[in-house]
Amino acid sequence: MMRRRTTLLTGCTALALALGATACGGDPVSAGGGDKSLDGQTVTVAGVWSGSEQKNFQKVLDAFTEKTGAKTRFVSTGDNVSTVVGSKIEGGNAPDVVMVPQVGVLQQFAKKGWLKPLSGTAQQTITADYAPVWKKYGSVDGTLYGLYFKAAHKSTVWYSPEALTQAGVQPPKTYDELLKAGHTVSDSGLAAFSVAGQDGWTLTDWFENVYLSQAGPEKYDALAAHKLKWTDPTVVKALTTLGKLFKDKQLVAGGQKQALNTDFPGSVEKVFGPEPEAGMVYEGDFVAGVAHDQYGKAIGKDADFFPFPAVDGGNAPVVSGGDAAVVLKDAKNAGAGMKLLEYLATPEAASVWAKAGGFLSPNKKLDLASYGDDVTRATAKSLVGAGDSVRFDMSDQAPAAFGGTKGAGEWKLLQDFLRDPSDPKGTAAKLESAAAKAYQD
């Protein structure tokens, strides 16, 4: 299952060109210089990554081995991290480190007493080198447990430069301009947007960007924590705004019915595949990986992005997701696991994956020259430059029953709304009913 977090295709997966990575000062990165103090120890790391993501993370683990002497072993959990890790803990075979893909899961692990607070060294690095928002999302009840090593930028609209040039359209700055540009693209022969309605998570991302810009960060935080009800007028207003796009057959490729039968990879194909049907597709920076890997598009030339535009005079939104490294308290080698986290907190570790491609780091000390191409650098600059205005994916902060389950909760209700956007107020009431139950359980 393709998740909006960083499960399969987060970051521009094959964008790394032949640039060498550099550390903050611009010198070539080396994982050497360690004291080999962990010789003979093995750190087991569990996470959702597979394929190219797992291979690239292994390069980071290999650099840690070179630096410290510790061996590493990566175990891919698939999407259901909570269940897999829980069964390993019960079986007395807990991994030392888990790369947690959702704030809600990190909070769940902490409340079960599974996590070890980060060391003073790791905390000092995070405080110095990361925007405070990342410390907030890694903490539970004031204790810092998680280090956000890998991030996603989920406020990017990807487009075919050829399609927009043919229509005479420039990347829009506001949501109203976005819809106007969409109609112009449609008039030139292509639908404006390819919408991946078969995957409910993409619709939550649409909503979150509109809501963050339109209602503002304080309301966003309150709704994410369910301190604000989904029946609030700001939610109805955001749904109404989104509904204008969803119900416009000129804007959505194939209309609502086809959108509901289009998954995320299919939505990218409709813009960048051999037979384009639309000029634009909204999703995170990981769109570039599909466009490049599957369809050979040169990023920055055949495929490019513009920031998700501001809605109703608000600020342009920056919604993110990410994977947080945590150390399990009852792990056999938790000490060495914490040393790995201290390493992952450094720009040196981040640069290893930045060089390999398919990666964004929230570490503001990572030299942007470490990234292999201008588009990835621009995406990273936007993410880091947003500072504390970044907001984590709202549905990833919710209990999985509401924000992360196929065919249920927010995913299903927004699919129903895409099918029939005529009653935003009724949809808001259904969302509130589902949220209230999930947050109570």
Distance between the termini: 25 Å
Number of strands: 13
* Superfamily (CATH H level) name of the largest domain: Periplasmic binding protein-like II
The low-pLDDT segments are 1-33
Task: Indicate the proportion of strand residues.
Answer: 5-15%
Please bin the fraction of helical residues.
40-55%
Based on the coordinates given, report the CATH architecture of the largest domain: 3-Layer(aba) Sandwich
Largest sheet: 7 strands, mixed
What is the residue-averaged pLDDT? Answer: 90
- From the alpha-carbon coordinates, what is the Rg to the nearest angstrom? 21 Å
**What structural class is derived from the secondary structure elements?**
alpha/beta
User: In the CATH scheme, what's the topology name of the largest domain?
Assistant: D-Maltodextrin-Binding Protein, domain 2
Number of domains: 2
Highest CATH level, the class of the largest domain? Alpha Beta
Q: Helical element count?
A: 20
Shape: globular
Question: Could you explain how this protein is built, in words?
Answer:
The protein is α/β, with parallel strands linked by helices and 441 residues long. Helix content is 46%, strand content 13%. It contains 20 helices and 13 strands. Strands 1, 2, 3, 4, 7, 12 and 13 form a 7-stranded mixed β-sheet that branches. Strand 5 and strand 6 (143-144) form a beta hairpin. The radius of gyration is 21 Å and the shape is globular. The model is unreliable at 1-33 (pLDDT under 50).
